[in-house]
Design brief:
With 447 residues, this protein is α/β, with parallel strands linked by helices. It is built from 16 helices and 15 strands. It has helices at 34-42, 48-56, 64-72, 74-81, 115-129, 136-142, 163-180, 197-203, 219-225, 235-245, 265-274, 312-326, 391-394, 399-402, 407-414, 424-440, and strands at 2-3, 7-11, 18-23, 29-33, 60-61, 84-90, 149-155, 183-190, 208-214, 250-257, 284-289, 346-349, 354-356, 370-371, 375-376.
Length: 447
């Protein structure tokens, strides 16, 4: 037996001679003695009980070569097993806020989806969920087949500026899914200013399940980065709405931070608790770094980061995650990741019916992969889907957590998606802290 390529060995705090073996492939963990670790690393025979456990956890494997071949097939296997059609539907590119760092930047404007496009989108969904068994290559290119569940995220701009069209579209999709025996639900990706109790009560019977609301930390920071177009702060309006609807819909709060303000975010978590928005009412809180979009999109903003390997992120990531978990909120889980670009039935549909494979690519025509009227084109080459299928990546223990990194960040930084956006320096600096947080807060799936 061999130690899996996709494992990291970490010391156990306060216990000399004890180690964790963490599988990046399935986030399982085993605590072993130094003696047992040496036997594993040398390939010596192990006690039968230990060997059975470590094999079950995926930490011990029979053939490293076969394991790497299995990794090459990971996205395909996940796609073949998936029964979910997940689409972000851009209702408009308009907004009532003037966020300083918005990745849509100068692509925003009074661009709204028409009812004709919305109805065509329903036809697009119908085609995806009524497809018959297709070849693997056809499914990769066209999507569709084996769908049991439809999940739509109404997106913008600010989607609730198109409230009437959301009602129209959700009603038609709910009827379609019911007639075909499929599950249907939807979410709102919203700035929260229009997310009133009245809106939620209207949308819940149509399938509203979740609302993702962006709040950039404490009032002072949030209002500086996410004001109304008039310049007035939006924090108080958003938090009033969150208070009003937290018992009616599953709320997920997410904030965007920079190098200069991330240490202020714990104050926002305390504010939530003091306001009664405790983890039982708002379970999920996330913090995400602002990406530097470049002068072509945001000519007046120079904040954000251009790589996950910027040294300040080595401390900010574990710091913010610890503050979230310590207060009892659900944070972002440490888990193997497959980018939506790799998912055959995961799309973004723009207000005009154009199809993209990443929200950050909205309006970049060179990355448009089709249209709801004409279908989905083959995007494997244009989006460099196989960038991680090389010996260096296959021999990297972090591969399941990375799979080539963020192609969009690579594009923003270098002007192309060639090669990988390697995250090794980031994980070298942070993985131990993340794993020990998972252990401390009992988030490990298997141990």
């Amino acid at each position: 037996m061999h130690l899996s390529t996709y494992c990291k060995i970490l010391p156990v705090d306060g216990q000399a001679g004890s180690f964790y073996i963490f599988s990046t492939k399935n986030t399982a963990i085993a605590e072993v003695s130094e003696g047992l670790l040496r036997r594993i690393q040398s390939g010596r025979t192990l006690p039968a009980k230990d060997e059975r456990l470590l094999r079950r956890l995926g930490i011990l494997i029979a053939d490293p070569g076969r394991e790497k071949k299995r990794m090459l097939r990971l996205p395909e296997e996940l796609n073949r097993a998936s029964r979910l059609l997940s689409i972000k539907l851009v209702m408009n590119l308009d907004c009532n806020l003037a966020c300083r760092y918005c990745f849509e930047g100068n692509r925003k404007g009074r661009f709204y989806m028409s009812q004709e496009i919305a109805d065509e989108f329903v036809n697009f969904v119908r085609a995806r969920i009524t497809s018959q068994r297709l070849s693997i290559e056809t499914r990769r290119q066209k999507g569709g087949g084996f769908i049991d569940e439809v999940f739509i995220t109404f997106y913008g701009g600010e989607p609730l500026l198109s409230r009437k069209l959301i009602v129209h579209t959700a009603r038609k999709l709910k009827t379609l899914a019911g007639r075909l025996g499929k599950a249907f639900s939807f979410a709102l990706q919203t700035n929260g200013t229009l997310l009133t109790k009245e809106v939620v009560q209207e949308l819940r019977p149509l399938g509203l399940a979740e609302a993702y609301v962006t709040v950039d930390g404490p009032r002072e920071n949030h209002d500086a980065f996410r004001p109304y177009k008039s310049g007035r702060g939006s924090f108080d309006v958003i938090m009033r709405n969150v208070q009003d609807v937290c018992g009616l819909v599953d709320l997920k709060l997410g904030g965007n931070f920079t190098k200069d303000n991330y240490r202020s975010f714990p104050g926002f978590l305390d504010y939530l608790i003091e306001s009664g928005l405790t983890p039982d009412k708002v379970p999920s809180v996330g913090c995400f770094t602002v990406v530097s979009e470049g002068a072509d999109v945001l000519p007046d903003y120079r904040g954000g980061c251009s790589s996950v390997n910027e040294s300040w992120l080595f401390s900010s990531g574990p710091f913010l995650r610890e503050e979230i978990l310590r207060r009892g909120y659900h944070g972002e889980r440490l888990t193997p990741v497959v980018c939506m670009m790799e998912h055959w039935n995961n799309f973004l549909v723009n207000y005009n019916g154009d199809i993209y494979k990443c929200p950050c690519l909205i309006g970049r025509k060179e990355f448009c992969v089709g249209n709801i009227k004409t279908g989905v084109n083959d995007f494997r080459t244009s989006h460099n889907l196989d960038n991680w299928k090389n010996e260096q990546c296959l021999n990297c223990s972090y591969l399941p957590l990375c799979l080539g990194g963020c192609r969009y960040m690579k594009f923003v930084r270098d002007g192309n998606m060639d090669g990988v956006d390697c995250k090794k320096p980031y994980f070298d600096a942070t993985l131990e802290a993340f794993v020990k947080q998972d252990i401390r807060y009992d988030l490990i799936k298997e141990k």
